[in-house]
UniProtKB/TrEMBL annotation:
SUPFAM superfamilies: MetI-like. Keywords: Membrane, Transmembrane, Transmembrane helix, Transport. Residues 65-277 form the ABC transmembrane type-1 domain. The lineage of its organism: Bacteria, Pseudomonadati, Pseudomonadota, Alphaproteobacteria, Rhodobacterales. It comes from Ruegeria spongiae. The chain crosses the membrane at residues 9-31, 69-88, 95-112, 150-175, 207-225, 260-281. This is Sugar ABC transporter permease. Its main location: membrane. Belongs to the binding-protein-dependent transport system permease family. It is found in: Cell membrane. It is a multi-pass membrane protein.
């Protein structure tokens, strides 16, 4: 009979304690602020669930949440299929494999604030290369500082450029793990490329696709730095996502109670939707 060595927990417990401390203390602080009102000087007044009710009924919160969901839906609809297509197009063997992997990883190595600054300079209508090319060369009326649609397109394209590589690398890892015997059997049976993808490649990529969808949902749903640096939430409030609005309330208006309540609601929505995604994508694997 195999015995388990429980002494390994002695090495894990300090790490778990440190992580729990770093997570629980800020969380309890936010919970404390969410049920109280403060006017400075550490004077707190009990508010109860009033801030939560106010936030949930707020037109501002609902509009920002709608923009956040729309942005995340667009990102997932573009990046997941595009990542699969690029991964399928990459070589499996030879000299170009490391070259392609390095090129795919490069965008993710750039810090988020640098990405926002790069795209801000790149897309400005007068001095930016892309802005100049679209306006003066192609004759397209493009100005992401004045036009909400142009701003939205710019934010989406920036995120697709920055994070599609993550989906590509995860899908590629799933593809290279498929044994050659599957492809040989499909070739003997005369299976088409679509049949190979549908019955061999896609099922074998399901686990990594689940991870990719969850990561991209959580990242895109909580995105802040890139769109804030790029557009600042403008023009107007057209690209003010929920994360940007939360920071404006907390640091701009210094309304700590409503900001804390909004952050907890934000956190709960993220957990709930992530759980729904996970259940839907793994329900066929459950006994």
């Amino acid at each position: 009979m195999r015995t388990e060595n429980q002494k390994a927990w002695l090495f894990v417990i300090p790490v778990l304690a440190l992580v729990a401390f770093n997570a629980l203390v800020p969380m309890m602080t936010v919970v404390n602020y969410s049920v109280q009102e403060t006017f400075g000087n550490n004077q707190f007044f009990w508010e109860g669930l009033g801030w939560f009710e106010q936030i949930l009924r707020s037109d501002r919160f609902q509009a920002a949440l709608g923009r956040q969901f729309m942005f995340t839906a667009i990102i997932l609809a573009i990046e997941v299929p595009l990542g699969i297509i690029v991964a399928l197009s990459m070589p499996r063997k030879g000299f170009w494999v490391p070259v392609c992997l390095v090129l795919m990883a490069l965008p993710m190595l750039i810090p988020w604030n640098v990405v926002g600054s790069m795209w801000n300079i790149f897309t400005l209508p007068k001095i930016g290369l892309l802005g100049y090319f679209l306006n003066d060369v192609l004759g397209i009326n493009y100005d992401m500082t004045q036009q909400p649609i142009s701003a939205w397109i710019t934010v989406v394209v920036m995120d697709v450029w920055h994070w599609t590589s993550l989906v590509v690398l995860l899908c590629y890892a799933g593809l290279v793990s498929i044994p050659d015997a599957y492809y040989q059997a499909a070739k003997i049976d005369g299976a088409s490329a679509w049949s190979v993808f549908r019955y061999i490649q896609l099922p074998k990529m399901k686990a990594v696709l689940t991870i990719a969808v969850l990561l991209r949902f959580m990242d895109s749903f909580n995105i802040y730095t890139e769109p804030f640096v790029l557009t600042g939430g403008g023009p107007g409030n057209s690209t003010t996502l929920l994360s940007i609005d939360l920071v404006k309330i907390a640091l701009g208006q210094f309304d700590l109670g409503p900001a804390a309540a909004m952050s907890l609601i934000y956190f709960a929505i993220t957990l709930l939707v992530s759980w729904v995604f996970y259940v839907l994508m793994t329900k066929d694997d459950q006994p």
